[in-house]
Design a protein that fits this description.
Layout: H1 2-13, H2 18-23, H3 27-49, H4 54-76
Amino acid sequence: MSRERGRRKLMLRLPDIRHLLVAMTNETLGEMFEAYDLAVDALERFRIQRPREDKLVKEYEQLCYEIEQEVVVYCTRR
């Protein structure tokens, strides 16, 4: 379930490779989808619960960005 939510979130964030995200299915990519879903959920919680905790918000924004870039590289090199 988390993998599919992560895939959908990435499809919204990365429209240029949406067609690749729909078509590709394997364990590595599934793990990236799941990690992204968890990271985005945590980021949203930190933004709501800890508005003054900029360090955690910035850390998770960076993590989400890095996962997005990893997915782009993974999908476009196949």
